[in-house]
Amino acid sequence: MPVWRFIETPPWNIANRLSEFPYDTEWCVIHPDGKKVAQKLEPMPPETQTIFKGDRVLVLKGQSKGKVGLVASVVKMRRLVYVEGLNPRYRRSDSNDSLIAEENYLKINEEVALIDPSDNAPCQAVWRYDTKGNRVRVSARTGHLLPLPVAARILDDLTDPEVVEAGDKDTPSEVVTKQTVDFISTPRLETFEEELTRLYAPLDKRKRFPTYWY
């Protein structure tokens, strides 16, 4: 049984961030207190994620119920969020007997909800497309637009596509977006290797010598 450690220090395990991680597997989940639980981890692909770091949310359960705060981090692999300064848990300091408060995790769509800016009430978010074809997040209750925070554009590898610059080893965008499949022309009866040879192999300009049979 594979082991996955539930750690809370960012950037966490890489399995937290990859949406294509194999979730349909029985895991031995190790919690911060050392407790081991055998369970399957539910996936949260990008098309279903509606809460991101920097979102303004309302806590629905726990000792911070009814309070509003900003999402400090999202743990995709466990469908959990941490809200800045809310839902605290306390531990004793190693140096003295003083108590230290830390944010405890909250379950997405169960213990937190987004704030609808039209009436400042909690709401569930859904993805829709506007008149220009852009994918936007709206309130399922009022249909009001829910703007995405800046951190929502951060990719799974923790890079910002609007800030990062392409290097020498990066694939150019024109190569990535180039259409390489022709859906209009009549398909050719050739293998994949024959197609690559036809498109990219140099032309053979040699002339065949005549063959004589005696």
From TrEMBL:
One of its GO terms (cellular component) is ribosome. InterPro entries: Rib_uL2_dom2, Ribosomal_uL24, Ribosomal_uL24_C, Ribosomal_uL24_CS, Ribosomal_uL24_KOW, Translation_prot_SH3-like_sf. Keywords: Ribonucleoprotein, Ribosomal protein. One of its GO terms (biological process) is translation. PROSITE patterns: RIBOSOMAL_L24. Gene3D superfamilies: 2.30.30.30. The keyword Ribonucleoprotein applies. Residues 98-145 form the Large ribosomal subunit protein uL24 C-terminal domain. One of its GO terms (molecular function) is RNA binding. Belongs to the universal ribosomal protein uL24 family. This is Large ribosomal subunit protein uL24 C-terminal domain-containing protein. It comes from Schistocephalus solidus (Tapeworm).
